[in-house]
Amino acid sequence: xxxxxxxSQIKSADKFAVENYSFPSILLMENAAESIxxxxxxxxxxxxxxxxxxxxxxxxxxxxDGFALARKLAIENYFVNVLIIxxxxxxxxxxxxxxEILKKISKEYGNLSLKFYKKHQDxxxxxxxxxxxxxxxxxxxxxxxxxxxxxxxEELNKSTAVKISIDTPTGxxxxxxxxxxxxxxxxxxxxxxxxxxxxxESGKHSxxxxxxxxxxxxxxxFDKLSINEYLIEPEDALAGLPVKTGNLNKYSAGKLLAxxxxxxxxxxxxxxxxSAMISGCGAGYLAFPKSVRSLVQPKMNAAIVLNYNDExxxxxxxxxxxxxxxxxxxxxxxxxxxxxxxxENTQNSVFEIIRKNPSKKFLIDADAIFxxxxxxxxxxxxxxxxxxxxxxxxxxxxxxxxxxxxxxLIKFGRKFVEETKSVLVLKGAPTLIFNKNGEVFxxxxxxxxxxxxxxxxxxxxxAASFIAQSGNLENSAISAVYLHGLAADIISRxxxxxxxxxxxxxxxxxxxxxxxxKSFV
Length: 521
Prior knowledge:
Elements: E1 2-3, H1 7-20, H2 25-43, E2 52-57, H3 61-75, E3 79-84, H4 93-105, E4 112-116, E5 131-135, H5 149-157, E6 162-166, E7 187-191, H6 201-206, E8 209-213, H7 220-223, E9 229-231, H8 234-239, E10 255-259, H9 266-278, E11 283-289, E12 304-308, H10 321-330, E13 333-336, H11 344-356, E14 362-364, H12 367-371, E15 385-387, H13 391-398, H14 402-407, H15 409-420, E16 423-426, E17 432-434, E18 440-442, H16 455-470, H17 473-494, H18 502-518
Parallel strand pairs: 2-3, 2-5, 3-4, 5-6, 6-7, 7-8, 9-18, 10-11, 10-13, 11-12, 13-14, 14-15, 15-16
Antiparallel strand pairs: 1-9, 16-17, 17-18
Helix pairs in contact: 2-3, 3-4, 9-16, 9-18, 16-17, 17-18
């Protein structure tokens, strides 16, 4: 796991360095500028002295980093244009010191030019640059960008130049990983430590490649901090895979019951149970309406269809609860939800199955999540459950408005698991996994090709299979999410994102496990 830090922890580090190490704050800025320069020149090693840098500076410390960086690049004979957004008398503190130095040396270096922004046409001063460096707001972004910064950022985003942000893309609120208008960086050199808000929602989609820069206080300080947010690494997914020992039989290799599918949506059930079986589950049953058994029977790989008497209604209903109980007792894990439909009788049946079996391990997905909405989930014991909603399903489940949820994903995710003691897999780009202690794990695999009917059913099958085999909810969720995304990445690499289908994902699962294992041999 790669630890991630909150913006408050990073700000505390600056304060700690000044107060406890007697670091002059101007030295922190100098260290930052040096590490930013090194990161840029390392990432773009082909840069020659004829390439032009444009640095757009705000009035705060982010702008100060930009002034110091401009000086360092100019001294090394790169062409540098600095566009300064505030008026000169608005620049203060360490930023003011670095601005004054830059202003003086600009008279001696013909490759360094400074210009104050006064009107929209002044953006042309930086338009013909090869590299545009955002030193406008950094971690100071909160709320919507104001004029003229909003217009400047929108104009800069149109440029085909390589775009680089210092610390944080301007316009990105790190607390919520959101923003109305955000600088679209190809590279972000984030200072001191990796910040959570850069890796999900708008942060993920506006930061480009993220590398770490240094302010010079060393790693010891950060190693002592309490961390509860992490990036998932490949080795974490590998470590969470079920163990296949030599003395396994089909029943000790994981017994799974999938309560999924209906006459109208048999495909979801097929994807879920087939992905579960190919993920290593030893014995699997699919509970499915008897009257439409023929919809799924020919497409089953290794699982057995368990018919329940639906009286030709083609859905799960309350009469089936007792009928399924013996197989529920038998199973190591129960996958419930994909393709069940939202008939009121079905919803009540789902609720009762979960209520009557609090000691069983459940993977609750799709229509089963809908069945627990409007506060119904609060009446259940979910401490043995993994829930896998996407954002809209989670909003419906908790009663939170979707837009409010998107601005506070981590807050509401934590609140839910603290309340239910469940494991939450909040599907998105990227997917966030919350454990019972409120720790958050951000997935690093997957691509846009997963935005397709059936992808979630495949994920629920993999996760339920791992739970049946290992019994570990958290590890199973982490490994399943990463593996699912990695399978999509491999398909995309070999074909394209356009060609990713549930069928291809299922076939790719064992190959992806093999790839993951080989990577660490």
